[in-house]
Amino acid sequence: MELFDSHAHYNDEKFDDDRDKVIKNIYAQGITRVVCAGYNLKSSREAINIANRYDFIYSTCGISPNDLNDYNIENLDIIAKLAKTKKNIAIGEIGLDYYWGKENKELQKQAFIRQIEIANTLELPIVIHSRDAIEDTISILKQHTVNKKGVFHCTQLNKYLVQEGLKLGFYISFAGPITFKNSKNAKEIVSIVPDDRILIETDSPYLAPEPVRGTRNSSINVKYIAQKIADIKNTNIEYISKKAYQNANEIFQIKDI
Ligand SMILES: [Zn+2]
Q1: Cα 198 from Cα 153, distance rounded (Å)
Q2: Which residue of 6, 133, 225, 242 is 20 to 30 Å from 106, comparing CA positions?
Q3: Residue 140 within any structural domain of the chain
Q4: What separation in Å is there between the alpha carbon of 20 and the centre of ligand 1?
């Protein structure tokens, strides 16, 4: 069984001591594709470096709503340039986060829209980070068509967000929170996503799923997300893993060899 972790941060400092060891190990354990996501200038550059070092890792670059210190015209030009790198498959993570940033909503919206424009220019999909900003996220996506669509990463378990996201042609990526014991509506939300729109991710090093919650996360744990979805959909982990793999190749325009 091969697995595709559609969102991880091997560019995070928590991997500084043993990055190469962890990456070699995840590949040996059957995680044969990974997207390493950038979120500001430095991490975007690092994601590209990592993708250049490992055949099976791809990158995204962008400035997240929590990293708007990096948001200026000059840096956007750099992001656009970095994003042209061969193994960069999306602009992200970008979006809105009103959980951490209530005071700069207008700036967040502006940065989101500008980066959608970059994605359209480069014919790339986007990876969306949306937290406690459901209405505004959907309304921006309705007003600013993303030509190559994209992915809701670590999708917030909200029915309106998922339904509207699906209608707009986006893919829904599930992470650790669907396995958490206090997650009340994981079953309801996972059930409404068609099999051909589901992605699985770890968001490593954060959000380790049950039964390893609280530890440093790595792509090895993406199997727990696949298993949880399989349980909810009354199918097996092999089927979900395969679907999620194909779906990720599809949305990120990765040709299968
Ligand atoms: Zn992330």
Answers
A1: 11
A2: 6
A3: yes
A4: 20
Q: From the CA of 255, how far away is ligand 1's center (Å)?
A: 24
Cα(59) to centroid(ligand 1), Å: 12
Question: For residue 164, what pLDDT is reported?
Answer: 98
For residue 7, the CA-to-ligand 1 centroid distance in Å is 6
Q: Can you give the pTM of this predicted structure?
A: 0.97
Query: Would you say residue 138 has pLDDT above 80?
Result: yes
127 Cα–ligand 1 center, Å: 9
110 CA → ligand 1 middle, Å: 20
Distance 256 CA to ligand 1 centre (A): 25
Residue-wise pLDDT for 239-249, tens only, equals 999 999 999 99
Domain annotation covers residue 257:
no
- Per-residue 3-state assignment (H helix, E strand, C coil) for 101-131: CCCCHHHHHHHHHHHHHHHHHHCCCEEEEEE
Q: Give how many domains the chain has, as a whole number.
A: 1
pLDDT one-digit tens code per residue, 94-121: 999 999 988 999 999 999 999 999 999 9
CATH of the domain at 153: 3.20.20.140
Q: 68 is in which domain, residue-wise?
A: 3-251
Burial (0-12, 13-18, 19+ Cβ within 10 Å), 21 = exposed
* Residues 27, 55 contacting (CB under 8 angstroms): no
Per-residue confidence band for 257, with pLDDT thresholds at 50, 70 and 90 = low
Task: Flag whether 139 is in a domain.
Answer: yes
In a domain, 207, yes or no: yes
> Could you tell me which of 100, 92, 159, 86 has the C-alpha nearest to residue 119?
92
